[in-house]
Structures are given as structure tokens and as C-alpha cells.
Design brief:
With 117 residues, the protein is mainly alpha-helical. The chain is built from six helices and no strands. Helix 1 packs antiparallel against helix 4 and helix 2 runs antiparallel to helix 3. The structure holds flavin-adenine dinucleotide.
């Protein structure tokens, strides 16, 4: 367990950023293999996330909200809902999931360019 609140928060911010960006870049029409890969990633994330308390809670969220992998939109919305469930538990403000498509860019110029069009 990471005792230090600052480290836990930095880890959380970095992890959410990676997770939401990955979901924002997930294929719009994923293959079965890509869907399986995302699902595995999320369950392994829940096993290996290096803050024990967070990982335990995340595994409960995976039971309550099974990962949605049918499309980029479904996956991104799922990520937003799960992050909001953590926000609620930590008494942080809710995020408006309607705006999520505008927020996460990958830094890969062509992809972001396509997205803005
Ligand atoms: P963060 O929650 O880190 O969010 C970063 C930014 O993401 C926000 O500023 C906002 O711009 C955006 N954002 C906010 N909500 C959403 C959303 N719903 N969808 C998309 N974008 C959004 N900490 C604990 O103390 N206890 C825990 O049990 C715990 N569990 C966690 C489980 C997981 C899987 C992860 C990744 C982190 C967990 N954390 C936990 C860390 C916690 O969620 C925060 O990351 C940390 O407290 C820092 O919070 P923050 O206010 O900087 O914003």
C-alpha cells in the first residue's frame, strides 16, 4: 500500500490520463481480438494497480460495471462512469461524460487532427 497521499494522487492522475486516452483511441469498430485485449487489460489493471486500496475498489467496480468494449464510444463512456464512481467515493466533483470526446488526445498528431475535423 502506498502510504503517501501525494504519491497516490499523482499515480491516480497519471493512470486516469492513460486509461481515458487509451479508451479515446480505442477502435470505433474493434475486432473481437481488440475487444478481448481491452477487457484483459482492464482486469489485469485491477489486479496489478500499485495502490492496494484503489485496486480492491476498482475490482468491485469491474463487477458492478463490466467493461464495455463494443466501440470507442462505449469504452470511453464506461471509463467515465467508473471514474465518476471513484470521484463519488472520494467526494470529488462529477465529470460530465457528454464532453469526454473533446478532452482526451493522444499527442499523435494525425490522429488528433482527424478527430478535430
Ligand atoms: P483525478 O480523479 O485524478 O482526475 C484527473 C482529471 O481527470 C480531473 O482533473 C478531470 O479533468 C478528469 N476527470 C475527472 N473525472 C473524470 C471522469 N469521470 N471521466 C473522465 N475524466 C475525468 N484514490 C484514493 O484515495 N482511494 C481510492 O480508492 C482510489 N481508487 C482509485 C482507483 C483507480 C482505478 C485509479 C486510477 C485511481 C484511484 N484513486 C484513488 C486516485 C484518485 O482517483 C485520484 O486520481 C486522485 O485522488 C487525484 O485526484 P484529482 O482530483 O487530481 O483528479
Amino acid at each position: 500500500k502506498l502510504g503517501n497521499e501525494t504519491i497516490k494522487q499523482e499515480l491516480g492522475r497519471a493512470s486516469w490520463k492513460l486509461l481515458h486516452t487509451m479508451l479515446a483511441r480505442f477502435p470505433e469498430k474493434p475486432t473481437l481480438d481488440e475487444r478481448e485485449a481491452l477487457k484483459s487489460y482492464l482486469y489485469l489493471f485491477g489486479r496489478l494497480y500499485p495502490c492496494g486500496e484503489c485496486a480492491t475498489h476498482f475490482r468491485l467496480l469491474l463487477q458492478k460495471y463490466p467493461p464495455q468494449t463494443s466501440s470507442r464510444d462505449a469504452a470511453s463512456q464506461w471509463g467515465c462512469v467508473v471514474h465518476n464512481a471513484v470521484n463519488e467515493r472520494l467526494r470529488k466533483p462529477m465529470f460530465d461524460c457528454g464532453t469526454i470526446a473533446d478532452k482526451y488526445h493522444c499527442g499523435c498528431a494525425e490522429e488528433d487532427e482527424k478527430k478535430r475535423k
